[in-house]
Structures
1.
Amino acid sequence: MERTFIAIKPDGVQRGLVGEIIGRFEKKGFTLVGLKALSVSRELAEQHYGVHKDKPFFAGLVDFITSGPVVAMVWEGDGVIASARKLIGATNPLNAEPGTIRGDFGANIGRNIIHGSDAPETAQTEIALWFTDAELVSWQPTIMPWIHE
Ligand code: DAT
Ligand code: MG
């Protein structure tokens, strides 16, 4: 079953959006298999955003993600990686459709509330970077026959 890495960034946590965001993933029908709140070290931030290390916004991005609490999650479900990106919306919240998390709650690209893995390979790498195997729980929601045929 497909899994993706989702992180609520310090702005989302500070603004009290944790419950709202978790609720959206739950109501969609995805399964929560990992969840923790943490302060992100610079080392973890630089590894997580390594693909952007040559971009002009990299330093600000690392400063921001290390500036407050982050809620890290792993969600499971058929097609969850691409679907989560749709629930999240465009990178720039000003371009994100209403109904998406960034479209409903964001107003600035540097404060876009949430991260979601963009492909199967990055999902796998990011889950391994943020969680140990022991921190992930494999389970089958009993409601699954009403979510998935
Ligand atoms: P996404 O988070 O939608 O996958 P990304 O991987 O291209 O977007 O960029 C990672 C983060 O970096 C993004 O969530 C916000 C920040 N960012 C991206 N482009 C930016 C820009 N042009 N100016 C400032 N911050 C930017
Ligand atoms: Mg990205």
2.
Amino acid sequence: MKHAVVILAAGQGKRMRSRTPKVLHPLLGRPMVRYPVEAAKESGAERVVVVVGHQAEAVKEALEDAGVAFAHQQVPLGTAHALAQAKPLLEDFDGAVVVTSGDTPLLRPETIRALVRALEEAGGAGMALLSFEAEDPTGYGRVVRGRDGRVVRIVEEKDASEEEKKIREVNAGVYAFDRRVWELLSRVKNENAQGEYYLPDLVALYLEAGLPVVALRAEDERELLGANDRAQLAEVEGVLLDRLRRRWMREGVRMHLPETIYLEPGVSLAPDVVLEPGVVLKGTTEVGEGVRIGAYSVVTNSRLEAGAEVRPHSVLEEAHLKPGAVAGPFARLRPGAVLEEGAFVGNFVEVKKSRLGRGVKAGHLAYLGDAEVGEGTNVGAGVITANYDGEKKHQTTIGRRAFIGSNSVLIAPVQIGDEAFVAGGSAINQDVPPGALAVARGRQRNLEGWVWRRRGEYPSESGG
Ligand code: UD1
Ligand code: CA
């Protein structure tokens, strides 16, 4: 049977206590609502409709490239009312209509398919719903079954009697309906504790219409966790992270204290990568074979080629390390930092929009911005490219096998030739030809005995 999926995402999510709508809270760097959308697509849905309302524009923007249609719910009158908004988009659809929530991000595509199958296989059933045994059912709708074990209705927490509250089988908020759903929806009433139109009321309405309702029990309650507040949000993110870490460990990645390592779904890792405790990998970071990333390093949208190494406490963003390049400890590589093979950037060195040629060494306390550094050059401690004149950025070009002495300022735009030697402490504002020595600093004078003379401890040369 074909199926379409409707994702309800019009609510505000008051329990989050946030200006951000619930479904836009990020999970591993992606807005929550993207997860059910992806699951819907992977389940093979022919159409995906997202019902938006609260901060609709922001939610639509987060799904701009997702290839879904939108329905609008102007006022949040309840989940049944939300689904009714999708009617114009789906009433002609000839197949099952699956409904899920924007705040149930762990739902897997297999489960969507299983629910559609359950509806189909029940022969003549009008509705299939997903339930699970909750460790703590608080907040969920309870599944009420009759003496024969069949589902009779669902009762929301706020409407439940003390007896009903003890039921641990709860409604996951994921359903598959046949085409009659559109007509039955118009019969849902809002006579309940919250004055809302409840989607779960369709259970009773289908039964009244003489159409069986089947409940599919999910095996793993973790898959159906709803992210309604910050604690559940953290719990859900933990589950997603756990899935990701396990996947990469299966693919040959070594993680020390994996529970301390944070990864995002766009990250890719090769076999024999070693991640030390506290490592954070974000965005589209790509890590090649055998790369080691030191403890507490944060790497975002970067590329680390095979055999590169990031030492502890380094922060990399849009950086590129070629094979055998090394950064850190305490290195800061900003967008456009490229370390060619075997280049080395040490502690407290910041690199931005600069290419460091093969074997370049910048071991300590330097800033290299808008620079090109040729192969084999040594950049001393405290070297600064003064790339900004208060209005514009300028380029520094350093040749091969040059030596830039400690604490030199290279005032850009400036060029240092191949094999040139800049004396420590120089302020360089003119080009240095290849092979030349540049000294640009105040000349040192030593006044012999000056200190003692001042104290009067030492006879002056003039005898006074
Ligand atoms: C809902 C179910 C409950 C179930 C639980 C599972 C109802 C009445 N209750 O409760 O039985 O156990 O999910 O997680 O359906 N939404 C709208 N418009 C509205 C109201 C809600 O789009 O007017 C959206 C919300 O954005 C959310 C989803 O529907 O994504 C579910 O709403 P929520 O308020 O979280 O329902 P629960 O109280 O969790
Ligand atoms: Ca919910």
3.
Amino acid sequence: MEHVLFVCLGNICRSPMAEAMFKQMVADRHLTDQIQVESRATSTEEEGNPPHPGAQKTMRSHGLDPSGMVSQPITAADFDWADVIITMDQSNLRNLNRLAPTRADQEKVHLALETVPGFAGQEIPDPWYSHRFEDTYQSLNAALPGWLDRVTQADQ
Ligand code: 4NP
């Protein structure tokens, strides 16, 4: 079993969208018994809150169901659970490096766009201010197939 964890600042915009999209991709490839997917926040700011209305609307417009999702701050147990931690921007990377209990946990952390040729080091910006949730979806849609390929190769 591979465990994939998506993380952003609030766990109400980017990482829940990534979780829902990646779960759908895993289901489409009939891999639900091999890959588990979760998402978490680096902050406690939005703890217990559902995805942002704009994120919910964008998820629904692409056939994804945001119901039941709530923001959860990352814990030491989450770092331990995860095989790979996929995050959105440089600020998220710094926060995760600070929060990671061990060096091995730090090494699990990657920027989502790392899988897109020419986009290493690039960020998926926070749509909380811009409200460009469809841009977030399209960036994730470019990055996530590469992550599914990597995870399925790791699982062999
Ligand atoms: P997210 O967006 O990190 O993509 O979930 C944000 C959500 C909440 C806040 C910032 C970004 N906030 O400051 O509470």
4.
Amino acid sequence: MTDTIEKPSLNFVEQIIEDDLASNKWDGRVQTRFPPEPNGYLHIGHAKSICLNFGIAEKYGGGGNLRFDDTNPIKEEGEYVDAIEKDIRWLGFNLDDRVLFASDYFEQFYEHAIALIRAGKAYVCDLTSEQTREYRGTLTSPGKDSPHRDRSVDENLDLFQRMRKGEFPDGTRTLRAKIDMASPNFNLRDPVMYRILHADHHRTGSDWCIYPMYDWAHGLEDTIERVTHSVCTLEFENHRPLYDWFLDALDVFHPQQIEFARLNLGFTVMSKRKLLELVRDGHVEGWDDPRMPTLSAFRRRGYTAEAIRNFCDRIGVARFNSRIDLAVLENCIREDLNKRAPRVMCVLNPLRVVIENYPEGQVEELDGINNPEDASAGERKIPFSRVLYIERNDFLEDAPKKFFRLAPGREVRLRYAYFVTCTQVIKDDNGEIVELRCTYDPATRGGSAPDGRKVKGTIHWVSADHAVDAEVRLYDRLFTEENPDKTKENTSYLDCLNPESLTTLSNCKLESSWRSAADATTWSDRIVRVQFERTGYFCLDPTTSDTKPIFNRTVTLRDTWAKMQKRS
Ligand code: ATP
Ligand code: MG
């Protein structure tokens, strides 16, 4: 677990780039790419890769392509393409005309394959996938040559062309690189370059019935785009010899592959297969369910792009895998929202309070500070009247000495308002508390007593007649285990889903000024981020209706009580 992170001035990828610039290795050019497979939505791990690749391009005045690695027609969809683009733009990277598709290079891949066959470095193999696996050998024993390994160039050309024409059914033949069946690196044991797959592709339709494998396609994509630094995650380290072999065999522009550690985050999963499963099987409400680690979920939850970029920057880029504490991310979010989120009061679990000595029908407007961290955010008027709501758990009938909130006979400060004292507790037939009777001290307007008397607690409240009804959704971590991928035997990550990851409160009472908290520009996009005093940062859900706003809790506040007590 990485808790505190020290950031060196240059990460190791930037160091490589600066060395290359100094030696003029790439004629002073820097070209990177972010190559997602469009088979799911982007998650926070992808954000790390995006910030690294596009950040480098920005920093060194180079180019950074968004290249869809869309070589597998079966799992890929246009929906994902759109979502990925949207998320990257939201993160704040300008894509201009740098959105590229590997499928646009299919013809070039094919030509390169022909060249490799001509050079005697690739052959058509008729083994089934099962046989191919058998022939591959094991970690301790070398593989066996395919019986088709020594086909003539002419026969290979003929068969490969017929594969493309669609003469053979799925799975009957492959094109393989002729490398070394005894290599200690499995990836070099005559890897498959093409497979037959009669399936329509989201962009090329039915043009192709052979599709390139990842390792074959990826280096070619990089060379076609003249990528200088092909940055990928550590699991591709032992694919690098194959990446290099293909590009050397073709004698083409040869980018440098550099691997870095992928981001793992506590209490969530990051594999797209698992995220898809969570969505498809209804464990969450969709890719943008605010409990997901996807960028669309983070956006919906109220995380800001700036905070996510700051997080990616702060965790740094390393060569060894680690798991980042969720708290590191949440702190970045808090830090950012603390500066930008206006404060309002919202009572999540309301308890009615009648101020008995406050005149019926009277309303006064009290001054509230919109953001103590930002004087330019100004002040607002908060209506106060005889009937209020306070938070149910801010009252205890049998309160211990250390309970500084409201209790029978005790005095507490209502934020921005008055000192009130609880005089009576009213219960229903079941003994449940339904109302409190209090008195207020008119001399304490604004929250301090002229006689210098102190109260220990300050609680939030809203005026009953002025409150807006709201629904509030509280989110907790999606899993109960820090590493859901590593569960006990015979259990799956699904067994540690947190049953309490979502709490919906449908009877919340919100301060009426909340809407003015959103400035006009963000209101049109329904991006409203506020701090509900003492309960956390919240964000208006985009599905919200005009009659009853829905707020998602972005993140809790930390040390709320410590702070409140210092102020009083
Ligand atoms: P899978 O979940 O199946 O492993 P993937 O997340 O690697 O897939 P890609 O679409 O291939 O999906 O990822 C695009 C790019 O994002 C790749 O360069 C990959 O290395 C990088 N990437 C993916 N996950 C992470 C992560 N957790 N941290 C950093 N980079 C990541
Ligand atoms: Mg991948």
